[in-house]
Protein backbone atom coordinates (compact mmCIF):
# COMPACT_ATOMS: atom_id res chain seq x y z
CA UNK A 1 0.00 0.00 0.00
CA UNK A 2 1.28 3.45 -0.88
CA UNK A 3 1.98 6.00 1.84
CA UNK A 4 -0.74 8.55 2.45
CA UNK A 5 -1.91 11.32 4.75
CA UNK A 6 -5.42 11.69 6.07
CA UNK A 7 -6.46 14.84 7.89
CA UNK A 8 -9.51 14.48 10.14
CA UNK A 9 -11.18 17.85 10.39
CA UNK A 10 -12.71 19.14 13.64
CA UNK A 11 -16.47 19.27 13.98
CA UNK A 12 -19.41 17.27 15.25
CA UNK A 13 -22.16 15.56 13.24
CA UNK A 14 -25.61 14.54 14.46
CA UNK A 15 -27.58 12.39 11.98
CA UNK A 16 -31.13 11.11 12.34
CA UNK A 17 -34.80 11.65 11.66
CA UNK A 18 -36.15 14.56 13.73
CA UNK A 19 -32.67 15.36 15.06
CA UNK A 20 -33.13 19.01 14.01
CA UNK A 21 -35.90 19.42 16.58
CA UNK A 22 -33.20 19.48 19.27
CA UNK A 23 -30.76 21.78 17.51
CA UNK A 24 -31.44 24.65 19.93
CA UNK A 25 -30.19 22.52 22.82
CA UNK A 26 -26.85 22.18 21.01
CA UNK A 27 -26.28 25.95 20.82
CA UNK A 28 -24.47 27.80 23.60
CA UNK A 29 -24.43 31.22 21.90
CA UNK A 30 -26.36 34.06 23.50
CA UNK A 31 -26.70 36.26 20.36
CA UNK A 32 -27.65 33.86 17.57
CA UNK A 33 -28.08 35.08 14.00
CA UNK A 34 -30.41 32.79 12.04
CA UNK A 35 -29.75 32.51 8.30
CA UNK A 36 -32.30 31.15 5.82
CA UNK A 37 -33.89 31.94 2.48
CA UNK A 38 -37.29 33.65 2.56
CA UNK A 39 -38.84 30.31 1.57
CA UNK A 40 -36.98 28.49 4.34
CA UNK A 41 -37.64 31.07 7.03
CA UNK A 42 -40.76 29.42 8.52
CA UNK A 43 -38.79 26.21 9.11
CA UNK A 44 -35.84 28.16 10.49
CA UNK A 45 -38.09 30.03 12.92
CA UNK A 46 -39.68 26.80 14.07
CA UNK A 47 -36.33 25.16 14.79
CA UNK A 48 -34.92 28.29 16.44
CA UNK A 49 -38.04 28.98 18.52
CA UNK A 50 -36.69 27.24 21.67
CA UNK A 51 -33.81 29.73 21.68
CA UNK A 52 -36.28 32.48 22.64
CA UNK A 53 -34.68 35.88 23.07
CA UNK A 54 -31.25 34.40 22.34
CA UNK A 55 -32.15 34.90 18.66
CA UNK A 56 -30.53 38.24 17.92
CA UNK A 57 -31.88 38.51 14.39
CA UNK A 58 -32.46 36.92 10.99
CA UNK A 59 -30.73 37.24 7.64
CA UNK A 60 -32.69 36.14 4.57
CA UNK A 61 -31.02 37.96 1.65
CA UNK A 62 -29.35 34.69 0.61
CA UNK A 63 -28.36 34.36 -3.06
CA UNK A 64 -26.83 31.53 -5.06
CA UNK A 65 -23.04 31.68 -5.52
CA UNK A 66 -22.84 34.17 -2.58
CA UNK A 67 -22.38 37.50 -4.37
CA UNK A 68 -19.80 39.71 -2.64
CA UNK A 69 -22.47 42.37 -2.04
CA UNK A 70 -24.62 39.85 -0.17
CA UNK A 71 -21.62 38.65 1.84
CA UNK A 72 -20.86 42.22 2.87
CA UNK A 73 -24.48 42.80 3.82
CA UNK A 74 -24.51 39.62 5.92
CA UNK A 75 -21.28 40.55 7.70
CA UNK A 76 -22.67 44.01 8.48
CA UNK A 77 -25.87 42.46 9.83
CA UNK A 78 -23.99 40.07 12.14
CA UNK A 79 -21.68 42.83 13.33
CA UNK A 80 -24.52 45.27 14.07
CA UNK A 81 -26.41 42.62 16.06
CA UNK A 82 -23.35 41.60 18.06
CA UNK A 83 -23.91 38.00 16.97
CA UNK A 84 -21.82 35.32 18.67
CA UNK A 85 -23.16 32.30 16.77
CA UNK A 86 -24.59 31.58 13.31
CA UNK A 87 -27.44 29.13 12.77
CA UNK A 88 -27.66 28.32 9.06
CA UNK A 89 -30.76 26.35 8.04
CA UNK A 90 -31.03 25.60 4.34
CA UNK A 91 -28.95 24.63 1.33
CA UNK A 92 -25.48 25.44 0.10
CA UNK A 93 -26.18 29.11 -0.50
CA UNK A 94 -27.37 29.60 3.07
CA UNK A 95 -24.38 27.79 4.52
CA UNK A 96 -22.12 29.67 2.11
CA UNK A 97 -23.46 32.99 3.37
CA UNK A 98 -22.80 31.93 6.96
CA UNK A 99 -19.26 31.04 5.90
CA UNK A 100 -18.77 34.54 4.48
CA UNK A 101 -19.64 35.95 7.89
CA UNK A 102 -17.43 33.47 9.74
CA UNK A 103 -14.51 34.23 7.46
CA UNK A 104 -14.67 37.89 8.48
CA UNK A 105 -15.87 37.70 12.09
CA UNK A 106 -14.64 34.24 13.21
CA UNK A 107 -18.07 33.18 14.51
CA UNK A 108 -19.04 29.51 15.03
CA UNK A 109 -21.55 28.01 12.60
CA UNK A 110 -24.26 25.48 13.39
CA UNK A 111 -25.55 24.09 10.09
CA UNK A 112 -28.84 22.29 9.44
CA UNK A 113 -28.81 21.26 5.74
CA UNK A 114 -32.05 20.91 3.81
CA UNK A 115 -30.43 19.89 0.51
CA UNK A 116 -27.54 17.65 -0.48
CA UNK A 117 -25.00 20.40 -1.19
CA UNK A 118 -22.30 19.20 1.23
CA UNK A 119 -20.85 22.66 1.90
CA UNK A 120 -21.59 22.20 5.59
CA UNK A 121 -18.82 19.56 5.89
CA UNK A 122 -16.06 21.58 4.31
CA UNK A 123 -13.69 24.43 5.20
CA UNK A 124 -14.18 25.79 1.67
CA UNK A 125 -15.77 29.19 1.07
CA UNK A 126 -16.71 30.91 -2.18
CA UNK A 127 -17.97 34.29 -3.33
CA UNK A 128 -18.76 35.77 -6.73
CA UNK A 129 -18.21 39.20 -8.21
CA UNK A 130 -17.98 40.74 -11.66
CA UNK A 131 -14.58 39.07 -11.95
CA UNK A 132 -16.02 35.58 -11.42
CA UNK A 133 -16.04 33.16 -8.51
CA UNK A 134 -13.31 33.21 -5.87
CA UNK A 135 -12.82 30.32 -3.45
CA UNK A 136 -10.54 29.53 -0.54
CA UNK A 137 -10.05 27.26 2.46
CA UNK A 138 -10.11 28.23 6.12
CA UNK A 139 -10.95 26.26 9.24
CA UNK A 140 -12.68 29.44 10.45
CA UNK A 141 -15.61 28.64 8.12
CA UNK A 142 -15.95 24.94 8.98
CA UNK A 143 -19.20 24.49 10.93
CA UNK A 144 -18.63 23.33 14.50
CA UNK A 145 -21.85 21.30 14.39
CA UNK A 146 -23.86 19.84 11.52
CA UNK A 147 -27.31 18.39 12.16
CA UNK A 148 -28.60 16.09 9.41
CA UNK A 149 -32.33 15.45 9.59
CA UNK A 150 -33.67 13.50 6.58
CA UNK A 151 -37.23 14.60 7.32
CA UNK A 152 -36.28 18.18 6.42
CA UNK A 153 -35.59 17.12 2.83
CA UNK A 154 -38.97 15.49 2.26
CA UNK A 155 -40.41 18.61 0.64
CA UNK A 156 -37.49 19.13 -1.73
CA UNK A 157 -38.90 19.10 -5.30
CA UNK A 158 -37.82 16.18 -7.46
CA UNK A 159 -35.87 18.32 -9.94
CA UNK A 160 -33.85 19.96 -7.17
CA UNK A 161 -33.42 16.62 -5.38
CA UNK A 162 -31.85 15.14 -8.50
CA UNK A 163 -29.43 17.98 -9.24
CA UNK A 164 -28.50 18.48 -5.59
CA UNK A 165 -27.73 14.77 -5.19
CA UNK A 166 -25.73 14.70 -8.43
CA UNK A 167 -23.81 17.74 -7.19
CA UNK A 168 -22.99 15.77 -4.05
CA UNK A 169 -21.89 12.84 -6.18
CA UNK A 170 -19.46 15.15 -7.97
CA UNK A 171 -17.65 15.67 -4.65
CA UNK A 172 -17.14 11.93 -4.30
CA UNK A 173 -16.25 11.23 -7.93
CA UNK A 174 -13.62 13.96 -7.94
CA UNK A 175 -12.47 12.91 -4.51
CA UNK A 176 -10.85 9.71 -5.79
CA UNK A 177 -8.42 11.52 -8.09
CA UNK A 178 -8.02 14.98 -6.50
CA UNK A 179 -4.65 16.04 -5.10
CA UNK A 180 -5.63 15.07 -1.54
CA UNK A 181 -7.12 11.68 -2.42
CA UNK A 182 -6.25 8.90 0.00
CA UNK A 183 -7.52 5.37 0.78
CA UNK A 184 -9.75 6.54 3.64
CA UNK A 185 -11.57 9.28 1.77
CA UNK A 186 -11.80 7.05 -1.32
CA UNK A 187 -13.64 4.40 0.71
CA UNK A 188 -16.08 7.08 1.82
CA UNK A 189 -16.41 8.29 -1.77
CA UNK A 190 -17.46 4.86 -3.05
CA UNK A 191 -19.95 4.40 -0.21
CA UNK A 192 -21.30 7.88 -0.92
CA UNK A 193 -21.84 7.13 -4.62
CA UNK A 194 -23.66 3.90 -3.75
CA UNK A 195 -25.93 5.65 -1.25
CA UNK A 196 -26.71 8.56 -3.57
CA UNK A 197 -27.41 6.34 -6.58
CA UNK A 198 -29.61 4.08 -4.45
CA UNK A 199 -31.56 6.99 -2.99
CA UNK A 200 -32.11 8.63 -6.37
CA UNK A 201 -33.48 5.46 -7.93
CA UNK A 202 -35.63 4.31 -4.99
CA UNK A 203 -39.27 5.15 -4.49
CA UNK A 204 -39.43 8.56 -2.86
CA UNK A 205 -39.93 8.39 0.87
CA UNK A 206 -38.09 8.79 4.14
CA UNK A 207 -35.84 5.77 3.51
CA UNK A 208 -34.72 7.14 0.13
CA UNK A 209 -34.20 10.62 1.58
CA UNK A 210 -32.14 9.17 4.42
CA UNK A 211 -29.91 7.37 1.91
CA UNK A 212 -29.47 10.57 -0.08
CA UNK A 213 -28.60 12.67 2.95
CA UNK A 214 -26.17 10.03 4.21
CA UNK A 215 -24.49 9.97 0.81
CA UNK A 216 -24.32 13.75 0.73
CA UNK A 217 -22.76 13.85 4.20
CA UNK A 218 -20.05 11.41 3.11
CA UNK A 219 -19.51 13.33 -0.13
CA UNK A 220 -18.98 16.58 1.76
CA UNK A 221 -16.52 14.85 4.08
CA UNK A 222 -14.61 13.50 1.07
CA UNK A 223 -14.45 16.92 -0.57
CA UNK A 224 -13.27 18.51 2.68
CA UNK A 225 -10.23 16.22 2.83
CA UNK A 226 -9.43 15.30 -0.79
CA UNK A 227 -10.09 18.73 -2.23
CA UNK A 228 -11.20 19.60 -5.74
CA UNK A 229 -9.84 19.24 -9.24
CA UNK A 230 -10.78 19.85 -12.85
CA UNK A 231 -14.51 19.31 -12.46
CA UNK A 232 -15.03 21.88 -9.73
CA UNK A 233 -12.79 24.42 -11.45
CA UNK A 234 -14.86 24.14 -14.64
CA UNK A 235 -18.13 24.46 -12.77
CA UNK A 236 -16.95 27.41 -10.69
CA UNK A 237 -15.99 29.28 -13.86
CA UNK A 238 -19.27 28.49 -15.60
CA UNK A 239 -21.39 29.33 -12.58
CA UNK A 240 -19.55 32.51 -11.70
CA UNK A 241 -19.13 33.90 -15.22
CA UNK A 242 -22.51 32.93 -16.70
CA UNK A 243 -24.78 32.75 -13.66
CA UNK A 244 -25.67 29.11 -14.30
CA UNK A 245 -27.48 27.19 -11.54
CA UNK A 246 -24.87 25.61 -9.30
CA UNK A 247 -26.17 22.06 -8.83
CA UNK A 248 -27.44 21.68 -12.39
CA UNK A 249 -24.07 22.78 -13.78
CA UNK A 250 -22.28 20.10 -11.75
CA UNK A 251 -24.87 17.56 -12.90
CA UNK A 252 -24.35 18.28 -16.60
CA UNK A 253 -20.56 18.54 -16.54
CA UNK A 254 -19.77 15.56 -14.28
CA UNK A 255 -19.98 12.66 -16.80
CA UNK A 256 -17.83 14.58 -19.29
CA UNK A 257 -15.06 15.26 -16.79
CA UNK A 258 -15.24 11.64 -15.63
CA UNK A 259 -14.70 10.54 -19.24
CA UNK A 260 -11.78 12.96 -19.60
CA UNK A 261 -10.19 11.77 -16.34
CA UNK A 262 -10.91 8.06 -16.90
CA UNK A 263 -8.32 5.79 -15.31
CA UNK A 264 -7.68 3.30 -12.49
CA UNK A 265 -8.63 5.80 -9.76
CA UNK A 266 -12.20 5.94 -11.09
CA UNK A 267 -12.65 2.15 -11.34
CA UNK A 268 -14.24 1.87 -7.85
CA UNK A 269 -16.76 4.56 -8.85
CA UNK A 270 -17.64 2.59 -11.98
CA UNK A 271 -18.12 -0.52 -9.84
CA UNK A 272 -20.36 1.36 -7.41
CA UNK A 273 -22.52 2.38 -10.37
CA UNK A 274 -22.43 -1.15 -11.85
CA UNK A 275 -20.86 0.14 -15.07
CA UNK A 276 -17.72 -0.43 -17.13
CA UNK A 277 -16.56 3.16 -16.61
CA UNK A 278 -17.51 5.94 -14.22
CA UNK A 279 -18.60 8.15 -17.12
CA UNK A 280 -20.85 5.43 -18.52
CA UNK A 281 -22.40 4.85 -15.10
CA UNK A 282 -23.00 8.56 -14.52
CA UNK A 283 -24.62 9.00 -17.94
CA UNK A 284 -26.89 6.00 -17.37
CA UNK A 285 -27.87 7.26 -13.93
CA UNK A 286 -28.61 10.72 -15.32
CA UNK A 287 -30.92 9.19 -17.92
CA UNK A 288 -32.73 7.02 -15.38
CA UNK A 289 -33.41 9.88 -12.98
CA UNK A 290 -34.10 12.43 -15.76
CA UNK A 291 -31.27 14.74 -14.72
CA UNK A 292 -30.30 17.65 -16.98
CA UNK A 293 -27.63 16.68 -19.50
CA UNK A 294 -27.15 19.86 -21.55
CA UNK A 295 -25.48 23.16 -20.64
CA UNK A 296 -27.70 24.91 -23.17
CA UNK A 297 -30.80 23.58 -21.44
CA UNK A 298 -29.73 25.16 -18.13
CA UNK A 299 -29.02 28.57 -19.63
CA UNK A 300 -25.57 28.52 -21.23
CA UNK A 301 -25.19 30.42 -24.52
CA UNK A 302 -23.29 28.19 -26.96
CA UNK A 303 -21.88 31.31 -28.61
CA UNK A 304 -19.83 31.74 -25.42
CA UNK A 305 -18.09 28.36 -25.81
CA UNK A 306 -14.69 29.71 -26.89
CA UNK A 307 -14.76 32.37 -24.19
CA UNK A 308 -15.67 29.84 -21.51
CA UNK A 309 -12.90 27.48 -22.63
CA UNK A 310 -10.39 30.31 -22.39
CA UNK A 311 -11.57 31.26 -18.89
CA UNK A 312 -11.33 27.67 -17.68
CA UNK A 313 -7.95 27.04 -19.33
CA UNK A 314 -6.53 30.04 -17.49
CA UNK A 315 -7.24 28.25 -14.19
CA UNK A 316 -6.29 24.65 -14.95
CA UNK A 317 -3.31 22.75 -16.29
CA UNK A 318 -5.18 21.45 -19.33
CA UNK A 319 -4.89 22.63 -22.93
CA UNK A 320 -7.56 25.07 -24.05
CA UNK A 321 -8.47 22.89 -27.05
CA UNK A 322 -9.15 19.96 -24.73
CA UNK A 323 -11.34 22.12 -22.48
CA UNK A 324 -13.24 23.40 -25.51
CA UNK A 325 -13.89 19.83 -26.64
CA UNK A 326 -15.08 18.82 -23.17
CA UNK A 327 -17.47 21.76 -22.96
CA UNK A 328 -18.69 21.24 -26.53
CA UNK A 329 -19.61 17.67 -25.64
CA UNK A 330 -21.65 19.01 -22.70
CA UNK A 331 -23.66 21.48 -24.79
From TrEMBL:
It holds the Pfam family ADH_Fe_C. One of its GO terms (molecular function) is metal ion binding. Keywords: NAD, Oxidoreductase. The keyword NAD applies. Residues 10-150 form the Alcohol dehydrogenase iron-type/glycerol dehydrogenase GldA domain. It comes from the Bacteria. Residues 161-313 form the Fe-containing alcohol dehydrogenase-like C-terminal domain. Belongs to the iron-containing alcohol dehydrogenase family. PANTHER family: ALCOHOL DEHYDROGENASE (PTHR11496), ALCOHOL DEHYDROGENASE 4 (PTHR11496:SF102). This is Maleylacetate reductase.
